[in-house]
Amino acid sequence: MTIYEALRLFHRPKRWVTGEMTPQERKLVEQDLELYKEAKHVVCSYETYQTLTPDEGHEIALLALDLYDARINSDDYVPQQVLTNLAESVPGALHGLHSRLLDRGISFASNVIFREADPATRDRIISYLAQDQFPPFEGDARADLLCALAWIGDEHVQHQFIKWRQVPPKWSGDFPGPLDLYTYEAGWELTIEGTRRNLYFAENYDLLQIDQVLSTVYTEPIAVITSHEGRCEWCGRALLTLFDMNLRDARMQFVWPGGERLRIAFCLNCSTQAKSVFTEVDAYGVSRWSSLNGEPPEYLDELGLDPTSLPYDRIKLGQMRRTAYVSQGSHVGGCPEWVQDAAFPQCPGCGQTMLLVGQYEPVQVRYLEGIFYAFLCSTCGIATTGYQQT
């Protein structure tokens, strides 16, 4: 099924199985629902968009806007998902459409759909934030607009966040912190000097399940979820290696240029409880518990998770993704796909925000329905991981 066929299907109202149907009618509806399921997979998968031209992407965006306006199956969020994938995967696909998105108050996930918005749309968003009235965004209007602005992220936006840092607007008291914290949702931060610092790498490689690797083109410069010789000094459990990277492979050099090996460890018990377990690393394979972890948390729950139950070495390095912004699934480099809010850790050595190395979604493990994130401060030789789930 092509994305064009999928969008045409969503222009039909769904029919549901009811008790009044004949067996034949019930079978037809069930077959129809299977088609909707396939169509949903097509529009949600980033692979669908990887080879689209900007013109094709623009055409699909217009179809998505038509579907949004029709409100036929309004519970599906299909138009928002299509527009998000286009914004992440097809540069130029949404050019000339951002004012229409703003008119409709379309917001979804992190508002990456405004990433390439034109200056007029950017200035219009800023003007909305200077007023008490907002366009009909769903949910928290100001938060949506701040996220949209962060994804635009140009020098004008950076200057605006600096102004808000120096003189916060009256309504900023409704937020738990400085307004420039919203830049983290777009993968960057505003430095003390007032410049933009990206927290992700431009390179972005697929991490594929072994059964997805169909060609010998793929080699093995990375292993995921392997054993580790160390132990967690908080709970006593064996550490695991989230990423074991061969930095001598040209594709991995972007993480630590000139290095040979990087191992980023975690504790299955502590790291899945939103506790940052820091390890000391270098570019030659060193990976050990860091004294900067300090004393254990007061309440250290034992989840009873068995490290041996995780699927060792089930991932291979795939092809480079089209942009750094394609965030779905497991990948090395690129932007994170946050399940909740952005949560870049700070290095306990220098205090600087750590860079995302990659993320791993253990889809084969039932009790882990979330995403692991790996972070690095190469200046201090400190690594850590994060974990989020619904």
Name the structural class: alpha+beta
Overall 3D geometry? globular
**Uncertain segments:** none
Intertermini distance: 30 Å
Output the strand order for the largest sheet.
8-7-13-12-11-10-3-9
Count of individual beta strands: 13
If helices are DSSP runs of H or I spanning 4 or more residues, what is the number of helices?
Answer: 8
Largest sheet: 8 strands, antiparallel
Your description of this structure?
There is one protein chain. The chain has 390 residues and is an alpha+beta fold. It folds into two domains: 3-198; 204-388, no CATH class. The protein is 26% helix and 18% strand. The protein contains eight helices and 13 strands. Strands 8-7-13-12-11-10-3-9 form an eight-stranded antiparallel sheet, with no helix packed on it. Strand 12 (371-377) and strand 13 form a beta hairpin. The model has no long low-confidence stretch (mean pLDDT 89).
What's a concise summary of this model?
This protein has helices spanning 3-10, 23-44, 54-70, 78-89, 98-104, 119-129, 141-152, 155-166; strands at residues 188-190, 196-198, 204-209, 222-231, 238-246, 261-266, 279-281, 287-289, 315-320, 331-333, 355-360, 371-377, 382-388.
